[in-house]
UniProtKB/TrEMBL annotation:
InterPro entries cross-referenced by the UniProt entry: Bact_polysacc_biosynth/exp (IPR050445), LPS_length_determ_N (IPR003856)
Species classification: Bacteria, Bacillati, Actinomycetota, Actinomycetes, Micromonosporales
Species whose genome carries this gene: Mangrovihabitans endophyticus
TM regions (residue ranges): 14-34, 285-307
Family: Belongs to the CpsC/CapA family.
Domain Polysaccharide chain length determinant N-terminal positions: 7-86
Protein name per Swiss-Prot or TrEMBL: Polysaccharide chain length determinant N-terminal domain-containing protein
């Protein structure tokens, strides 16, 4: 077919090429006009203390800002947070999920949360609740985990201490390692005294010192085989004490992060504004008109093919 043929087809069926796009655009405009008015609010979250810094923080490194924004966006649409926001505001969870959008401000750790809905009075409360719940979901849970670790470490220390106490009760001795060292030192002193007394002819004193030395040797012989087991228990208690110190340090860091994520300090909610219908109409009507034009072109081509087929004489 030549260009003239296409122009003839368009001239003959101009009403289809013009009518379908106009009809599609009109339907789109009517749909937008009949939908309830929408309102939106934009909230800002700026928490630089939560990103970067020491390695104990959750978000460190070159991609810390992107990771924080991605985690926050995922938290806002998580089922737990949506259910909590729905319980706080009375807005259904599906409505909350469909109306929220999170965007990063440039390459920084700051972000914006935009929520749009049909109930003007609930738009701002939903945004506030979502920020609070999302930050709690991300950081307060770390405090809970760290608290559980501290509790478990304290239990290990108590258990190790009880084993030591039970061992001392069973062997009827307290702190045998220190007692062993003290006995060794006393033996050395007594040996020196025995030699000194023997040198000056103090036979009675030397015999008394020798008697005490013999008792000390018996005590050392009794304590020696028991020391390895006791020292193993001491090592267990020291390891549990070190783990408890680390757990308390992690808990302190987690509490610092949770405090830095206080919504009252790191977030601000803007004014509620109506969503422009003109923009919604432009966004909806133009694609609808383009789709109508495409359908019109296809329809005109189909009608032309049918007309040519009917106009051909029968063989």
């Amino acid at each position: 077919m030549e260009t003239v043929d296409y122009l003839r087809m368009a001239r003959q069926r101009w009403w289809i090429l013009l009518g379908l796009p106009v009809l599609a655009a009109a339907v789109a405009v009517a749909v937008v006009a009949l939908t309830p008015a929408r309102y939106q609010v934009t909230a800002y979250v700026a928490a630089p203390a939560l990103v970067g810094g020491v390695a104990a923080q959750q978000y460190t490194g070159g991609q810390a800002a992107n990771q924080f924004v991605a985690a926050f966006a995922a938290a806002t649409t998580s089922p737990k947070v949506l259910d909590q926001v729905a319980g706080d505001t009375g807005v259904p969870a599906d409505t909350v999920r469909d109306g929220v959008a999170v965007e990063q401000v440039g390459a920084s750790s700051q972000l914006t949360l935009t929520y749009a809905g049909t109930d003007r009075a609930r738009v701002a409360p939903v945004a506030e609740s979502m920020i609070r719940r999302a930050l709690t979901f991300l950081f307060a849970s770390q405090v809970d985990v760290a608290t559980e670790q501290v509790t478990a470490a304290e239990g290990d220390v108590q258990a190790a201490t009880k084993k030591i106490t039970d061992w001392e009760s069973a062997n009827d001795v307290s702190q045998p390692d220190k007692l062993y060292q003290a006995t060794l030192s006393e033996q050395s002193n007594l040996r020196q005294q025995e030699l000194s007394m023997a040198a000056v002819g103090n036979t009675r004193g030397a015999e008394a010192a020798a008697k005490v030395l013999e008792e000390g040797r018996k005590q050392l012989a009794a304590l020696g085989p028991k020391l390895p087991g006791y020292q193993a228990l001491i090592a267990q208690r020291d390891a549990a004490t070190g783990a408890l110190a680390d757990a308390r340090q992690h808990l302190q860091a987690a509490r610092a992060q949770a405090q830095a994520a206080n919504p009252a300090q790191v977030s601000s909610v803007g004014e509620v504004a109506g969503v422009s219908r003109l923009r919604a109409i432009a966004v909806t009507a133009l694609p609808a008109a383009g789709a109508g034009l495409l359908v019109a072109v296809l329809l005109v081509a189909l009608l032309e093919v049918l007309a040519r087929r009917n106009s051909q004489p029968a063989p």
